[in-house]
Amino acid sequence: MFTGIIEEQGVITAIDPSGDGVRLAVRAPLAVSDAQRGDSISISGVCLTVTDQTPEGFTADVMKQTLDMSTLGTLAVGSPVNVERALAAHTRLGGHIVQGHVDGTGEVLEVRPGEQWRVIRVSLPADLAPLVVDKGSITVQGVSLTVSDVSDADASSQWFEISLIPETLEVTTLGALTPGDRVNLETDILARHVQRLLRFASPDGIPSTEEGGSR
Fold this sequence. Notes:
mainly beta, seven-stranded antiparallel sheet, 3 helices, 37% strand
C-alpha cells in the first residue's frame, strides 16, 4: 500500500531478461535505507518486490503481464523513475490510498505551462473513464494527484487533466513529460469497488449477496 507521495527519483541501472519478464536494477538509496528482501517499493506507480539490494539500490523481477500493462517495458538503462516506499501504519496519509496496481496507460496529449502551474492533459482508456471524476484522485506515474478537469461522458475520446505545482514538477518525473509520452494510471480503489459492486446488483438496485439473488 502506498500514498502516491514520491520520496525520491531513482534511476534504472540494469535491465536483464528473466524468462518472459525482466529483472530491473534501480538506484534508489533512500528507498533501500531501511528496506529488506521481500519489501514492496513503488517504481513509477508499479508495486515491485525487492529481491536483492545494496546500499545504493535494489533489484526486482517484473513479470510479462506487468510489462504489458505498464510503461516499465519501455524503460532503458538511465531512465528516471518515481520511487516510494510502502506506507507505514504510523505515518500520515498525505496522498490517497494507492495499491501500485496499474490499471492501464494513457498518452500525454497536451502540456500547458503557466507562471507557476503546469496543466497536463492525458488520454483515458474508455474502460477507465467511468472511474475518473473531476476533483477526484488519480495516480499518474505513481504520483497521487487531483483531477482538475475531465472530458464529458459522451465525448468521442476520453481524457483528464492534472494541474501540477512547482514541488511536483521538481521532485517527480512529471516535470519532464511532453506530448506523446505514455504514463501509468491507477484509478481510485473506492471507485473500482463501487463499479464492481454495481455489476452484481439486482434489477431493484440492491446488491445480491448470493447466487440466485437471495439477500
